[in-house]
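Page 47, continued from p. 46.
Same chain as before, 374 aa.
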Amino acid sequence: MPRLVSPALQAEGRRDSRGAECAVGLIAHSAARLTVVQNRPDCFDTSHCLRRAPMRHPLLATLALVFSTFVGAQGYPSKPIRWIVPSTPGDGSDITGRLIAEKISQELGQSVVIDNKPGAGGVLGSEIAARAPADGYTMIVGNAGSHGINAAIYSKLPYDVLKDFVPVALLCTAPNVMVVGPATKVKTVAEFVAYAKGQAGKINYASGGVGSSSHLSAELLKSMAGVEMTHVPYKGAAPAVAAVMADEVNVMIGNLPPLLPQIRAGRVQALAVTTARRHTSLPDVPTLAESGLPGYSAYVWMGLLAPKGTPPEVVKKLHDAFKKAMEEPSYVAALGRYDMLPNYMSSADYTRFAQETSVREKVLIEKLGLAKGQ
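Result:
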């Protein structure tokens, strides 16, 4: 890798403790230009060399650090990238992350590895991501639950969803869908509400965890329909969907992608979607708003976020790769197979979206009385 070397050190060079010649990187004393020379390959650790170099000007260390960051961003990525998914395999964030990871790998020429870290409704994976080095090699595929609802429910989190992350790109949006298991013999929302009121205290609903979008969607239904249901949180969407199919619980209002195959196979009964309009994949399934709950509207989003302090050049490079991937018909078609819609936003728009969503969900959480002290 090229090194910045002062004129004196170009002529002299240095020897490290192993006796190998080490041409140390420094900024040349020139206001007009920077002198770049090629170092010996046996001195590849710039920070090691810089520690041994006599920094004769107060600005040299700062300039060297700036240049080091610039060079790092220019060469990014030089190794595989890790994307944390704060949920189990098979839920909306996991499906979305794997689809786009393949495209980003092609764009950047490096593997993107999905690392599922479920737990505490997305808190576990989010904390790991927030504490990761801000070098662009560890990021998180966040969602409405992990980076929206949790901040409204919990007054104390081991991270700040707005301050400790840098939004890179919004990946897609999707509706939630209300489904019941085989033993819950209802076919409409009105029938379910009547059934639930007649079985007071006996109705259970599944979610992908406390703070997940499926949790908030069901609580909103409880409030608007005036029914009593007991929350049974699972470690992600996949086990929650399995619980509905096995009649361990009566109902779930979960992400459409993992539920759609089960709806089409007849293993669960779809009652309504949560968006303001019907979804193209389920044209015969009404919305909750038109099923007797006017004003009911909810949807989920998935997006990539980086730890605070990630170099802007790295964020831009990733964002540009996302923009290009989202314009490819093959990616749009792949999302379409899971009934998700690509929803491109610039990093600035995504930042505003995250802030506005957080405020809106906090108001709703307080209204529903779901806020917790821990």
